Amino acid sequence: MNIFKQKNRLLHLLKKKNEYSIHSPYMFDLYNKLIKKNRKNPNKLIHALEEEFGKENIIKISCSYIEFQNIQNQVDDKTILCIKNPYQSKESYMEFHKITNDPRTLVSVDLFFLGLISQNKDLSRQHYIL
Q1: Which residues pair with 127 in a beta bridge?
Q2: d(CA 118, CA 109)
Q3: How far apart (Å, rounded) are the C-alpha atoms in residues 130 and 127?
Q4: How far apart are CA 16 and CA 37, in angstroms?
Q5: Is the separation of the CB atoms in 103 and 69 below 8 Å?
Q6: Would 57 disulfide with which of 19, 53, 109, 112, CB 3.0-4.6 Å?
């Protein structure tokens, strides 16, 4: 693990919250149903999300703001974007930061090894570090 990733892993551990800090009923259910038991294994979590929401509603992208912009025509309220390794390098973290701060991103979940993005217009804007 490189120094950037180690430093950010420590910061993530200090900032992360548990299910009691989640105020959205939708996110609370999603956390307790899928994220909590699969949070340490990104592949299992993605598979669980595909089973819950359908494979067509889970889109895996790299940590690239350009790719995020390019797939906007495929995204609807049911879509969840999965971004693996947002802390791989300083550049990937900066791209992840751009994605989470984009006005189209309403809910972002930072699990350190995986980022989840939802653009569901029924949800209020929130960023979770879990």
Answers
A1: 108
A2: 9
A3: 10
A4: 16
A5: no
A6: 53
